[in-house]
Amino acid sequence: MARSRAAYEYTEAEDKSMRLGFLLIAAGLLSLLGLGCCWLRPALQERGGGGSTNCTVLAVRQLGERFACTFSCGAACRGTARYPCLQVLVRTPRSSAPALLHEDERQLRTNPKCSYIPPCARDDQENSENVTYKQKYWKEKVGSQPFTCYFNQHLRPDDVMLKRTHDETVLLHCFLWPVVTFLVGVLIVVLTICAKSLAIRAEAIKKKKH
To answer: Rounded to 5, what percent of the chain is helix, strand, coil?
Structure first.
């Protein structure tokens, strides 16, 4: 009886394998739940309220107003600089009124008045040069050529974005890796149980032969 009970007990290596499997299962479920509540659901809501359309540049201009940005020059070095406001007005089939173009949803939330926020440099002149370069790009390189832009009814429905913050690849990875972690944990547990079961059967067959 004691030998039979000992045969069904897991060895130290099998016990560690089972713990690892259950740990991966729990981590996968918690990651999927956390990402779903905190990131995936808002991203899907944003995508659900938007779509793509064709845009054509109507006007590119700099406003007289300047906005503050925060630059970093080291671990304990931070400061505030300013940049001019660039506006790119576009035409869309959705409306006869001009729409203001933005880089993406994050830029729209950060500064809804402007179309571009340059990488914040310590020198205001460098920020101005970056904005002027972007202004020339839209005027000379893009011009009147149509391009794909995106709108979002949950933010500012009259504005459009050049690209989405949450694209299909990001959403796929957000869902994929927690599921892979969960499945790897399940696989480890199942293989450990199957290996233990086969070992018990082999031991039983061996005893019958003897």
So the answer is: 55, 25, 20
Q: Is 104 exposed, middle or buried (0-12, 13-18, 19+ CB in 10 A)?
A: middle
Q: Please state the pTM of the whole predicted model.
A: 0.58
Q: How many CB atoms lie within 10 A of CB 174?
A: 18
Closest CA to 197 of 8, 3, 5, 6: 8
Q: What is the residue extent of each domain of the chain?
A: 14-36+170-209, 52-165
Q: What percent of the chain has pLDDT over 90?
A: 28
Return the DSSP state at 210: -
Tokens of 72: 């970093």
Residue holding tokens 């504005």? 159
DSSP strands (E only) in the chain:
50-74, 77-92, 95-102, 147-152, 160-161
